[in-house]
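Changelog entry

Holo records now carry the ligand SMILES as an explicit input line rather than a separate metadata file. Below, a converted record for coenzyme A, shown in the new format.
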Amino acid sequence: MPPATEGTVVGPEMPALQETLDLYGAVGWGAYTDEPATLMRALAGSARVVTARRDGRLLGLARVIGDGATIVYLQDVLVHPDARRSGVGRRLVDAAFAPFADVRQQVLLTDAEPGQRAFYESLGFTEVHDHEPELRSFVRQ
Ligand SMILES: CC(C)(COP(=O)(O)OP(=O)(O)OC[C@H]1O[C@@H](n2cnc3c(N)ncnc32)[C@H](O)[C@@H]1OP(=O)(O)O)[C@@H](O)C(=O)NCCC(=O)NCCS
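Structure line, unchanged by the conversion:
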């Protein structure tokens, strides 16, 4: 384990409401923090929620949704701005998918922000327009 992640505990857990709101708020995800009850329902309905903590403080979270057999989606991965680029995001994604290693389709949809392509490619994901054989993705919002 790299020294920067020493003391950071990553594992499955349902975090409490206020610390969850604080974390999502620190990342600026107002669509979640505006609807706290919906956010907690979303976490409760996820196939797996993992957190990262250091000295008890919630530093990050990732969650997977899906059927657990043929398809799983990484729905959120977020790391507090104070704790980035020290391997916490990678550990969260690895822990979130750990029980689903044999699931054929592992997918996610995310904003086209700088750094995210590098992050997901470093974890072995391929952007859909680079995939062979060719794939399409669709969204309805
Ligand atoms: C994306 C996010 C989860 C990454 O978390 P993190 O803990 O900083 O990521 P890691 O330290 O595990 O990074 C692993 C690798 O990904 C790549 N990477 C991560 N962030 C990057 C960035 N901003 N720019 C370029 N590469 C990046 C690097 O290759 C990095 O390895 P390195 O630091 O040894 O070079 C974090 O930036 C975040 O919470 N962003 C806001 C929320 C978000 O956009 N989530 C994703 C959409 S759901």
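Spot-checked after migration. The chain has a mean pLDDT of 95. The pocket of coenzyme A is lined by residues 27, 76-79, 84-90, 110, 113, 115-116, 118-119, 122 (CB under 6 Å).
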